[in-house]
Amino acid sequence: MSNVLIVAEHLDGKLNPATAKCVSAAAALAPAAIDIVVLAADPAAVAAEAARLDGVRKVIAVANPANAHPIAQVLAPQVAKIAAGYSHVFGPSTTFGKDLMPCVAARLGVAQVSDVMAVEGTHTFRRPIYAGNAIVTVQAPADRTVVATVRVASWPAAGTGGDAAIESASVDVALPTHTRFVELRQGKSDRPDLQSASRVVSGGRGLGSKENFDIIFRLADKLGAAVGASRAAVDAGYVPNELQVGQTGKIIAPELYLAIGISGAIQHLTGIKDAGTIVAINKDPEAPIFEVADIGLVGDLFKLVPELEAALG
Q1: Number of domains in the chain
Q2: CA–CA distance, 98 with 91 (Å, rounded to integer)
Q3: Which residues are annotated as a binding site for FAD?
Q4: pTM of the full structure
Q5: Which site among 57, 93, 182, 288 is 20 to 30 Å from 164 CA-CA?
Q6: Where is the Electron transfer flavoprotein alpha/beta-subunit N-terminal domain (predicted)?
Q7: Does residue 48 belong to any structural domain of this protein?
Q8: Strands 134-139, 33-40: parallel, antiparallel or unpaired by DSSP?
């Protein structure tokens, strides 16, 4: 039977929703046990939150001042040490996971399986390739530990009715000193997080300017939605790059996605393919976005969006 270890992603004492989606992916293996490891300077609050996830047997809390910041080169030796006895080690396919998990795989001497979107067996997985235009089935060696990142947009979050045991652990392993934390720069917003929001309103180059992007923010506020953008809008300087949705931005799966002034390049569509309902507004009836939209409005966004905003009250 499989035993799965999940590396928790967290920030400022709060568990990232991506961890709950990793639990769902792990559950698809029908394993004997799912454990979560929380590495932090003070892991208590995050460990308590992780312990409430359904299907988790125990949470391993590793307290170490060196874990105050998520530095892959510092965390990886500890994860690799804890991974002894586990058949699988999962992390989210987020910035955190993409940084950390290859280091863990290297420590364990295995090849990483990236962006797991479906489980077909204990060592057989499906993942996207070619910007999501094709899905490939990959087979990991059955006699080696499976290290994988989970495509969080493809999995629902696990429930929060659990009551797993929390076990404190000390990891005796040499940590590198050549890598150190300097600073963290991140955008601040009162709006929902883009990667976990159930509603997202995105704007594209069709907005024409940074000032015009305000209509996207106003509509998002009406809907209680997160704000996203196409790469073209980001490159044009309308919004910062942390709002970019797509192959080179964030991969999201909201229940409702509004694409306004976005033509729908394949790189953008890759980032929204798992969205529930897609609504597109564009003046070009031949825009590729309409090929994937559930609801499409052809017209001037500067006329249609204010009308939509007014209808929302």
Answers
A1: 2
A2: 8
A3: 205, 230-231, 244-248, 261-268, 282
A4: 0.84
A5: 93
A6: 4-185
A7: yes
A8: unpaired
